[in-house]
Design goal:
This protein is α/β, with parallel strands linked by helices. The protein has 16 helices and nine strands. 46% of the residues lie in helices and 14% in strands. The structure holds (3S,4R)-3-hydroxy-2-oxopiperidin-4-yl beta-D-xylopyranoside (XIL).
């Protein structure tokens, strides 16, 4: 082949490939679904001026609950999440009503998207949750089951979900808010139909389904010693004595500016649980400012102090390996819907700007132990 023909052939080849590439760039549908900005996998941990990097230097993980819809629709949300946090807890996507909306019909789509995001950003996934009195699908709420039937439904559910996420979830809330404010078993379909054994059984089934994942009990109002915390302590001690595979307790820490727990009370409480040989963690912290008559700036400072105290309580107890908040931006907090009042309980404002609470956490992580 002479030189001229060869160049013409090359030119044709070039034109053909560029035409194919440009065709590939045409979106498949006229309105493509907005996708989060995915950071290159190794860029996140390399940053040092982030909460997750500073937390890693102190030997703990820093986490947040994640709203699956916001993650897909809001790139600033996705970018901040991947940059700052090392644990992702699905806010609602791994609850019973989301995962098994009809008998034996599983829907893992949203939860899988969260798990994929966590993997791409080297975050651990905190599964939340199996046994709760809320977020139940209608077929459970409205069904009338014998003890044997409900027991088999729960067993199948735990086994199916844990098997699906084997190797991808590092800790699971097996039981959530099982106690009422007096420390008694709360009325729920689980307790009423299965009796108190449901708790031990759920942990045992979970361990059978995946022996490598950490199994947690999670509750609110148990952060400082008191009726409910004391009842939880006795419950966990009993479970351990019976050989129930429980690895840790999550303390939710939904608190406000009025009568918050003190650092010393939280340390003392965490330490007695840790002395049982299990892990502890702060699992859902947020700090409501509603109801306080202080000017806004002072409210935000008081809020920052509370975040700082609770993080520093966690840092003081070696069994406390994770500090997780129930969201990170005031734009998507659950508090206004839950309380009926506006609020700003998190560490980034509505526009993803760092609040005094962010700075307080950062400084706590970087200050001398
Ligand atoms: C909340 C979610 O944030 C809301 O979006 C949902 O409507 C209700 O549940 N304790 C828990 C969480 O363990 O699962 C709850 O999450 C908040 C309180």
């Amino acid at each position: 082949m002479n030189k001229r023909r060869y160049s013409v052939l090359l030119l044709l080849l070039f034109l053909l490939t560029s035409c194919m590439n440009s065709q590939n760039n045409i979106p498949e549908s006229p309105t493509p679904k907005p996708r989060p900005v995915l950071l290159p996998p190794h860029s996140t941990p390399a940053l040092t001026n982030t909460l997750r990097a500073q937390a890693a230097a102190r030997g703990i993980l820093i986490g947040t609950a994640v709203d699956a819809t916001a993650l897909v629709q809001d790139s600033a949300y996705a970018e901040t999440l991947g940059r700052e946090f090392s644990i992702l807890t699905p806010e609602n996507a791994m609850k019973f009503d989301a995962l098994e909306p009809a008998p034996n019909v599983y829907n893992f789509k949203q939860a899988d998207e969260l798990v994929a995001f966590a993997k791409a950003h080297q975050m651990q996934v905190h599964g939340h949750n199996f046994v709760w009195y809320r977020a139940l699908p209608d077929w459970i709420k409205q069904g009338s089951f014998t003890k044997a039937q409900l027991s088999s439904i729960l067993h199948d559910y735990i086994t199916t979900v844990m098997t699906h996420y084997k190797g991808q979830v590092s800790m699971w809330d097996i039981a959530n808010e099982v106690l009422d404010d007096q420390g008694q078993f709360r009325t729920s379909i689980w307790y009423t139909t299965l009796g108190p054994d449901f708790l031990d059984q759920a942990f045992r089934w979970a361990r059978e389904a995946d022996p490598h994942v950490q199994l947690f009990y999670n509750d609110y109002g148990t952060e400082r010693p008191g009726v409910k915390a004391d009842a939880l302590y006795a419950l966990v001690k009993g479970m351990l004595a019976r050989g129930v595979p429980i690895d840790g307790v999550g303390f939710q820490m939904h608190v406000g500016l009025g009568d918050p727990p003190t650092k010393q009370a939280v340390i003392a409480n965490f330490q007695r649980f840790a002395d049982l040989g299990i892990k502890v963690q702060i699992s859902e912290m947020d700090v409501m400012v509603q109801g306080s008559s202080l000017p806004l700036q002072q409210k935000l400072q008081a809020q920052a102090h509370l975040y700082q105290d609770m993080l520093s309580a966690c840092l003081s107890v070696s069994a406390c390996e994770a500090f997780t908040m129930w969201g990170f931006t005031d734009r998507y907090t659950w508090i206004p819907a839950a309380t009926g009042h506006p609020d700003q309980p998190l560490i980034f404002d509505q526009n993803f700007q760092q609040k005094p609470a962010y700075t307080a956490l950062f400084q706590t992580l970087t200050s001398n132990p």
